[in-house]
Write a structure and sequence with these properties.
By secondary structure, the protein is α/β, with parallel strands linked by helices. The chain contains 22 helices and 27 strands.
């Protein structure tokens, strides 16, 4: 870099340091970040160290990319191969814990179905040919990117590439997301991601937010949940149409008709005002909404009794401070935010969030809204070329979005992926991506991390396949080709990343860099936030048609939104509710099954306005009689040897382009018709029964009695 003339402002920009006050931002620092200049003897930074002893594992810190939470990890490496993953105890996100999806990153790394070389129109090609074609076809016009949640220096380079190539747009797509909650936080409190203190709450009411399963940062919430349940034991209440992992752990589980969680929340607010005398000063619109929703109306709309509503309201008042969270819909999330104001939770169990001061590194969180907008813009001919990484729109998009036609309408498509899937099949060029255990990167957790702390991702072993490249290296190459000023100073992404990180920590010393590697994270300046005064909002909800059955699609920890369906470990891991493996099913209430003359294992055809799927029945009490729950994740058609099983319920979600401004896939309930398919086959489950049939195999006592005896000792 010492021989390259770079404008200081551009240098700050390409390193993502604008406004961060980095001490080394103008230093004469070569990409190798050594103190010498001129000739050097270069050693591989992945070469084994002298202290590595054969047969003895060494642990290295990195970051998990199995979901958007970005947990810190430790990987055990022996003889150059990573063999085990655990949580990083120094990470504030997961405090040494790691969920089953994080553990399965090891199998994703060694997956035999990984892409090992670039492809052009499905045929093997060289990197030079693939990049030459990309430079020819995607050098200007409306060049778009589609990714999952992205942050850190990957986002900096992606944004720089977008800015240099033309007037394109970045579509961040996540089927499992918290957009309803973040939009509500921004609207009501002026903070899209407030900090939740479950460990300080004495009661938690969740409206469709599976905080222990898949919502925002489940490992963070699991740690807080353990403290929440410690003496004095907190009370958990869950309102949802189909039981989630959080619902299975709740003290009070309330089954509401699909799409009516907002009405239940309004009914709770009504009782808090009329029965307990709580009020909302300066919020007349919200007050009016609570006053108008009586318990009788809630029962008619949602099927939730007045007794259940009273129990919820009484618990929230008697167990203060409490916490109300929601992800069922935008309406439910806004009501939950206002309920926290009414209950006095703001400033106690709900406090302002904090983030990194370097805005270019902040996480860009995905949603289904971006998926719909991409489909709409692509079909209208507004996208000339698109780069897709970390997203599979061809799988997660409902038929109503006609994603196949949308992708076909894009003139040139590039997929950057580790494995073939439904989307790579539709792309002109496929670039083989290194696994997360072979790559460098920085990641800013969207939630749960210590303010100002950035997680570092480092390779835990040499690449298994010589022709794969990391996302950072691909972005750096694309940026150079697009003419991004300042990137020519770096030979590879490692040099770029080390320069940027050294500037952020204010030191280029070798020892300080090694300390960052050992910790798996580093501190930089945080940006504190403050709540604005509670804005008066018009509360209400769009009531779904409650006469009839509704399809409910849910995500479960494991296969998630389908991105882990090519993992035999997670296919074999029993579902948290049904305990089923390797297949799909439809959860139906016993009353509904009896009315349709169905029994466990019967195949049924589920038909909505957007299509039909055929799967078998799982009769279960943990679902509302008006709901038909089909977990997402299965039903792939082109995703490796382990993913070709089950059905994909997302394809028949009744989605229309105009409806996505205020809803998400996971919060959508579609009218569904059930027809028997005439076949019965046993659903393979870890546990074939969830009833004791009067035999009292498991003895239970009330919590109060437990507290008076051995529980209170």
């Amino acid at each position: 870099m010492s021989k390259t003339k770079i404008n200081r402002r551009n240098f700050l920009k390409v390193l993502g340091l604008g406004g961060a006050g980095a001490a080394l931002a103008g230093c004469d620092m070569p990409s190798t970040v050594t103190l010498e200049e001129g000739e050097e003897k270069i050693y591989s930074y992945l070469a084994p160290e002298e202290y590595v002893i054969p047969g003895v594992g060494v642990w290295y810190a990195s970051t998990c990319l199995q979901c958007p939470a970005a947990c810190g990890t430790h990987g055990r490496v022996r003889e150059g191969r990573v063999l085990k993953l655990e949580g990083n105890p120094d990470s504030a996100v997961n405090a040494g814990k790691l969920c089953q999806m994080g553990q399965a990153a090891l199998q994703a790394h060694f997956n035999p179905d990984r892409i090992t070389a670039p492809l052009i129109n499905g045929q093997p090609a060289s990197w030079d040919d693939a990049l030459a074609l990309i430079n020819e076809k995607a050098s200007g016009g409306n060049v778009a990117w589609m990714t999952g949640t992205v942050s850190g220096h990957q986002r900096v380079l992606l944004d720089a590439h977008l800015a240099a190539t033309g007037k394109g747009h970045h579509y961040a797509v996540e089927t499992v997301n918290a957009r309803a909650w973040t939009d509500a936080g921004k609207t009501v409190l002026g903070d899209a991601m407030p900090t939740l203190h479950l460990d300080k709450a004495k009661a938690v009411l969740s409206l469709g937010a599976d905080l222990l399963g898949t919502w925002i940062s489940p490992v963070t919430f699991m740690g807080q949940y353990g403290k929440f349940r410690a003496a004095p034991r907190g009370v958990l209440i869950m309102v949802e149409p189909a039981m989630s992992l959080t619902g299975a752990n709740a003290d009070q589980w309330v089954a509401a008709k699909p799409g009516t969680e907002a009405a239940v929340a309004l009914g709770v607010g009504h009782l808090l005002m009329t029965k307990h005398g709580l009020s909302l000063n300066g919020m007349p619109n919200a007050t009016s909404a609570f006053q108008s929703m009586t318990p009788a109306q809630v029962h008619e709309i949602a099927g939730v009794s007045e007794a259940a509503l009273n129990k919820i309201a009484d618990t929230l008042v008697s167990h203060s401070p409490s916490l109300v969270i929601a992800n069922a819909s935008h309406a439910a999330a806004r009501i939950a935010m206002v309920l926290n104001i009414m209950l006095g939770n703001v400033g106690k169990t709900l406090t302002p969030g904090a983030s990194i001061a370097a805005d270019p590194l902040a996480p860009m969180m995905g949603s289904s809204k971006d998926l719909a907008e991409f489909a709409q813009n692509a079909a209208a001919g507004k996208i000339d070329a698109v780069f897709i990484s970390g997203a599979n729109p061809a799988f997660v998009a409902p038929q109503g979005l006609d994603m196949a036609a949308a992708l076909k309408a894009v003139g040139f498509k590039v997929a950057i992926a580790t494995c073939h899937d439904e989307t790579t099949k539709a792309c002109d060029v496929v670039l083989p991506l290194s696994s997360a255990l072979e790559d460098w990167g920085t990641h800013v957790p969207a939630y749960g991390g210590k303010p100002g702390v950035v997680h570092l991702q480092q390779p835990l072993m040499e690449p298994l396949h010589a022709d794969t490249r990391g996302l950072g290296d691909i972005l750096l190459t694309l940026g150079k080709s697009a003419g991004v000023d300042g990137l020519d100073a770096f030979e590879d992404y490692y040099g770029y990343l080390r320069t940027a990180v050294s500037a952020m920590i204010g030191s280029e010393l070798e020892g300080d860099w090694h300390r960052v590697l050992q910790a798996g994270q580093f501190e930089t300046r945080a940006a504190s936030r403050a709540f604005s005064a509670g804005h008066d909002v018009a509360l209400g909800f769009s009531e779904t048609a409650v006469s009839g059955l509704h399809l409910v699609t849910v995500a479960r920890q494991g296969l998630y939104d389908g991105r882990h369906a090519n993992s035999s470990w997670l296919q074999e891991a029993p579902d948290q509710i049904s305990k089923a493996v390797w297949d799909s099913w439809a959860e139906i209430h016993p009353k509904t099954a009896a009315s349709l003359n169905l029994k466990d294992g019967d195949y049924v055809r589920l038909t909505t306005a957007s299509g039909a799927i055929t799967t078998r029945v799982f009769i279960y009490k943990g679902v509302h009689p008006n709901a038909v729950c089909v977990p997402m994740g299965r039903g792939h058609t082109d995703y490796g040897r382990w993913a070709n099983n089950g059905v994909n319920p997302l394809t028949i979600v009744d989605a229309h382009l105009g409806d996505w401004q205020s809803s998400e896939i996971i919060a959508t309930a579609s009218l569904v018709k059930i027809d028997a398919a005439g076949e019965n086959r046993h659903l393979v489950r870890l546990m074939d029964t969830d009833q004791q049939y009067g035999r009292k195999l498991v003895a239970t006592i009330p919590a109060q009695q437990f507290g008076r005896t051995q529980g209170g000792a």
